[in-house]
């Protein structure tokens, strides 16, 4: 018969020997086992000192479970706090921000929302119609350099994209408090932005909006003074298709110095653009210009030498101008831009692709060209009987 070791059966933790203590380990969930409890008791008997309070054993009595249960009062207070922080659709601002980053916004345009950075502030406001004075709900979201305007679909709990404004291109001011109907209102305007009036829930919230927008607007203007933070320095010269597409979006969302007329967004979608050199046909010297072709107008812009700012130089209606080829002269990619109410301009392109596109888009048939007169032949007179 083989040899085996037999240990006596224990009836409680006081009867556990040192061999059993070595075999018992701490449970995976972090609870103390029987052996560890016995170890602490034996230490107490040897040192006659009060041991520190150990965690409860695995098998807890009903009274111990009730004593160790979490206090229901903090849970209730936490729920009440969350309810008080609800802003929209039974969600807090933090939950709404997570929803914006995680869920797609209906009718969204442009780059991904997370590309605009962290959300500085947001709240539910009312937008006043400039004609009917009717107030409708909107949700404003302030990023570091942009202000996002969202409409609401309360039936599906969805945000609807209405526009995103660069802070460097807008101004904010308080609406006069003399009219009781204009309480807690502020106005956003700019040379390239339609004026919008928003109404806040309180004067304190309006103050938060104005201070945050002004602060971020100043930082946005200062940051654009650095070439490393200017998108133009990366997009110009626009010698690749992806650069042209990004530059189109940039011009529709960024400030243009000395802008005149209706906002650029009202001109439609740009069809083509490129950097050219323009000179007066009667004078010497040429100037670099950015030509942007819209459905009804040709927009002329200038860019500073450091590629930081775009400035408005004028616009020409497409129906009154045309391009005449001049590329045969000295082998240059040139065409003459003429019109009835303008002085002729000589436009020089850098790339053949640009030249071909401008000629195709702006060339019109000569209105002075005479066409042959297709009159019907004369009728042969009928013969008379004699």
TrEMBL record:
<dbReference type="GO" id="GO:0005737">
    <property type="term" value="C:cytoplasm"/>
</dbReference>
<feature type="region of interest" description="Disordered">
    <location>
        <begin position="366"/>
        <end position="386"/>
    </location>
</feature>
<dbReference type="InterPro" id="IPR011993">
    <property type="entry name" value="PH-like_dom_sf"/>
</dbReference>
<dbReference type="GO" id="GO:0005085">
    <property type="term" value="F:guanyl-nucleotide exchange factor activity"/>
</dbReference>
<protein>
    <recommendedName>
        <fullName>PH domain-containing protein</fullName>
    </recommendedName>
</protein>
<dbReference type="Pfam" id="PF00169">
    <property type="entry name" value="PH"/>
</dbReference>
<dbReference type="InterPro" id="IPR001849">
    <property type="entry name" value="PH_domain"/>
</dbReference>
<feature type="domain" description="PH">
    <location>
        <begin position="118"/>
        <end position="218"/>
    </location>
</feature>
